[in-house]
Amino acid sequence: MTTTGRHRYTTGRLHCGDSRDTPQAAGTGRVRRPGRPFIAVLLALGLGACSSHWGMRVPDEAPVDATSMSPPQPALELITLDAPALRETAEPEPPTDLWDRLRAGFLLPDIEHARIDAQIARYTRHPDYLSRVASRAELYLYHIVTELERRDLPLELALLPIVESAYDPYAYSHGRAAGLWQFIPGTARMYGLEQDWWHDQRRDVKESTRAALDFLEDLAQAFDGDWMLALAGYNAGPGNVRRALRRNRDRGLPEDFFALPLPAETRAYVPKLLALRQLIADPEAFDLLLPEIPNEPHFAVVPIGGQLDLAQAADLAGLDSRELYLLNPALNRWATHPQGPHRLLVPKSQAEALASGIANLDPAERVAWHRHTIRPGESLSTIARHHQTDVATLRMVNDISGNTIRAGDALLIPQASAGSEAYALSQDQRAAARDTRFGRDESRDEFRYRVQPGDSFWTIARAHGVSVNQVARWNGMAPRDPLRAGRELVLWLPGAADQQRADASGVCADGGCTLPQRQEEVRRVSYRVRNGDSLARIASRFGVSVAEISEWNQLNPARYLQPGQQLLLHVPVTGGR
Fold first, then answer.
1. Which domains does the chain have, with CATH numbers?
2. Which of the following is catalytic: 112, 138, 147, 164?
3. Which 3 state secondary structure label does DSSP give 281?
4. Following DSSP, what letter does each residue of 403-469 receive, concatenated?
5. Greatest CA span in the chain, whole angstroms?
6. Does residue 352 have an active-site annotation?
7. Is the pLDDT reported for residue 436 higher than 70?
8. pLDDT averaged over the chain?
9. pLDDT tier at 433 (50, 70, 90 boundaries)?
10. Which pLDDT does position 263 carry in this prediction?
């Protein structure tokens, strides 16, 4: 059926023996959870219906005619079963395959729509894709399903990380979203996910799942239980969905998800999840083969009591460091965060070994330490950068309240106990892998550039004859990520080795090179679009190109500008002005 209005269904369930009702479609697409009085009525009716199967009323005993006595008949007794006994006999054995458990908790409506059909066709054209995603999901899916059940949420939401990240905890989008659930920095902070030098909790399996389900519950409440709108809000932001609803309401148009004027990405986003729902519900109908996932926890949480070197942790648990990072993908460095959370996720079979090893570990062996004597001209930031740590850690470890340090004093600095190969998925190793993947060829050399105050992706890219997207991609960033002065970037440039050796190309030192002197000054300008403006007209007015404006503002040149829209421009200004 093609939906023309909202699809209304209920998630309430009535139990009678081992039968349960399923979500019923009736009207619009909002989920209505019955209030407590209504639930009480349903339970009363349900238990009344059940009791008629389990007991019978016995009439009062009549006088016995001794002349026509027949052999005594067994008395018919009233049979009563208490609720726990009923549950014990009625509940089936839990499924051995996690996919079966997942299907049993599907609550979203089974909708037919051309957009869903298109996504089903897309997935079925690439059956190996879902097999690869399922293999990655095996590490995390049990935990996510368990959390959804604990909150009484539709288990289809466990498929959302397939749409968001293909169950890759290191997924990072052009919009600065990270992790299984693809949180952008602002929303992550709203839901208590920390992001700093040591870790990024948008990638933490437990914390990001908690935050994602909190966010989804808030969205479902905001849209009166309509999960289609809640999912759209997760992708596009609730404000965009409200504006689309208001626009349709003002024009007398339907207000269901499929009728809303939403961004193209969001219009495909919800159908992707609903397509996955149909594929997982009946994979045989689509000739799909899903690898079985055991219906049991994959990992256990082991308290570690403080900061711990990850090479040490992997050795104690008998794990490959890559496997340890995949279960703890929030960790950016060679050790856990000095301020916690002081725990590690490890495969269930290795949890006891790690716990025992930590209990017998000499505290001095948790983290290796280096004693550094401060030299004249050094600062906390330069020392931290040189020793691959952060200023906050130096302050904490050495009980320093500000930035003042004195030459001749000594600092204790935590450092990795093993070589880089022992920290397979640390941020530095992931960056090195990206360096190898993007841009490295026989015609290009590695160029290290130290970010200067006032730099932007665009000014750096323009000075070196590359694109903003290349600079961002080479450094595992998004074009709109903030650039901090002092950060070192990797660029892959033709003849870069010669450029770095040439004094005329700029100021080069051990930490890399700064930009060469430019012949023109570039000024950042914030421009508000006016009626009648076009990208070509604005580009001509400021002496830049349409492609540059599009890149600076992540615009699609084929789409119209809106009056009032704010644009960021980098306008060249001659030295005499």
1. 98-283 (1.10.530.10), 299-365 (no CATH), 368-419 (3.10.350.10), 429-513 (3.10.350.10), 521-573 (3.10.350.10)
2. 164
3. helix
4. S---TT-EEEEEE-SS-GGGSTTSHHHHHHHHHHHTT-STT-EEEEEE--TT--HHHHHHHHT--HH
5. 132
6. no
7. no
8. 78
9. low
10. 93
